[in-house]
Write the C-alpha cells for this entry.
Amino acid sequence: MKYSIDHKSPVPLHVQAEMLLRKIIEDEEYQNGKTIPNEVELAKQLAISRTTLRQAINKLVFEGLLVRKKRFGTKVANGAVSSRSNNWLSFSQEMKLRGVTIKNFELHVTWVYPDETLANFFEIKTDRKILKMERVRGKPHEPFVYFVSYFHPRVSLTGDEDFKRPLYEILENDHSIIATLSKEEITAIAADEFIANKLKMEVGSPVLFRKRLVFDQADRQIEYNLGYYKGDSFVYTVESSR
Amino acid sequence: MKYSIDHKSPVPLHVQAEMLLRKIIEDEEYQNGKTIPNEVELAKQLAISRTTLRQAINKLVFEGLLVRKKRFGTKVANGAVSSRSNNWLSFSQEMKLRGVTIKNFELHVTWVYPDETLANFFEIKTDRKILKMERVRGKPHEPFVYFVSYFHPRVSLTGDEDFKRPLYEILENDHSIIATLSKEEITAIAADEFIANKLKMEVGSPVLFRKRLVFDQADRQIEYNLGYYKGDSFVYTVESSR
DNA sequence: TATTATAATATGTACATACATTACTATGGA
DNA sequence: TCCATAGTAATGTATGTACATATTATAATA
C-alpha cells in the first residue's frame, strides 16, 4: 500500500492521518480533481475508524485544502498545491516559492525599553528591556522589506542566535514555542524619510505597511512585528475560508 | 438556563451548539479569561453528546476564538471579541463595527465581455458576457474604496437586484450560493489618474490594492473582485491560525 | 520545611454503531 | 420518449463508551 499508518507510534492516529492526507494532496495523481478514496474505504485501509479519519479530513477541509461533496466524494481543492496553511510560510520560504533568492543583508539586534503600546501589548512594565530586531531583506541594492520585531521576554532570546535560520524554526526547535495565531493589520502608506532610506526609494512612494501580532498555542503574546513592504514589488497573499 | 438547544429544529445540533458558543464568546462574562463550562457538563446541560459539542468547539478553536488548556478548561481567546470569522464580514458590516456609516454612493452595473485573464479564471469563452459591478464606497465627499467585481454567469444575477443589501446575503438567500473560500493578493500602489479621481485624492498617493478571488462551497469560481482602498484611511485586518 | 506521591479534573484520543441526507443512476411504466 | 420512482454510494449527523494524558491541588513522607 502506498500510504500507511503506524499504530505503535506515539503520534496520535488522527495526526498521522492528517500528515498522510497532506502527502496525498501533494500527489500529482490527485491534483486534477480526482477524488481521494472514500472515507469508509480509506479508514478500512488505514485500519483506523472512520471517525478518526474524519477528524483529519475536517481539519484539511477547514484549511481549504480539501473539498467535500456528497455522493461524489472528497477532492483536492482548486489550487491547493503549494498552499499548506499558506499564511504560515516564513518570509524566506514564501519568496523561495516565487523563485526569488533572499538575503538578510542588514540585521540589527538591540535591547530596548518598550514604549507604552508595546508594554501594554506584552503586559509587562516599561522598565523591562526587550529584544528589538531590525531587518532589511531583499536583494542587495534592491531591498524590499524593512522589518522591526519586538519579542516578549518569555521567548528568552539572547540576541546572539543565528537569525539566518527561519525565525519560526528557531522558536520551535530551540524554545519550544509554537506560534499558532497571528493578527494582522495592513494598510498602504507613503514612505517617510526613514523608510524611504531603508528601502532605497523616494519619499512619498507607496508602501504596504503590515502590523502583525503573534501569539503562541496558549494564546500568549510572542512577537510584535512591523513590516514595510516596497509597493509594487511585493504582493501579500491571504487565503481565508469559513 | 441561559442558553439552550432545540432538538426539534432541522438545524443540526452541532451547528446550533456552534452558534450558541459564539453567543457565549460575545458574553461579557466570558471575556476576561473566564473559562466556559467544561465539555462534559455543558453537553449534559444542552442535552447533546460530548462528541457533538466537541465538534462545535473544535471549529471555534480552529478559528482562534477559543483556546483549550488541559485541566484548566476552555476559554475565550485574547481579543476574540468582535472577531466572528473576521475575514467574512461584509464590507458594510466591517465598517459598522468601527462606527463608520457607509453608503454606496456610486453604483454602476454593466454587462461586458471578459478579457483573457477573466475568461481564463472563470473558465468561460471571451464571447460570453458577464456582469460587471463598480462601486465607490465611503462617506459622500470622502470615498475610500473603489470596487470592481465580475461575476461568473452561474451566479445568474440580472443586474437589477437591490445591491444595497450585503452581497453575500443576496448570494446566500436568493441564489443559494455560499462563498466559502477566497484568495487574496494585496499590495500597495500609487494612484493613477482614474483611481485618484474615483477616490478624490491626488495622483501618486498610496493606495492599498486588493485582488480577491471568491469560490463557493464546491470550489467553483464565483467572483473576481478588485478593490482600491485609500491609504491611511483604511486598515485591512487578517486573522490566521494553524 | 521541602520534596514526592496521589487524587481530582479537565481535555485528548479512539472506536463501534446507526440512521439521515444528498445527488446521481438505473429501471420500469405510461 | 419521457417521467416518476426506487436504488445506491458517498458524506452528514449523532450517540455512547472507554481509556489516555496533562496539570494542578493536596496530602503524605523524608
In short: Residues 35, 38-40, 54, 68-74 of chain A lie near DNA strand D (CB under 10 Å from a C1'). Strands of chain A lie at 35-36, 66-69, 73-76, 103-112, 130-139, 142-151, 179-190, 206-216, 221-230, 236-241. Helices of chain A lie at 13-26, 39-46, 50-62, 91-97, 116-122, 167-175, 193-198. The first helix of chain A runs from residue 13 to 26.
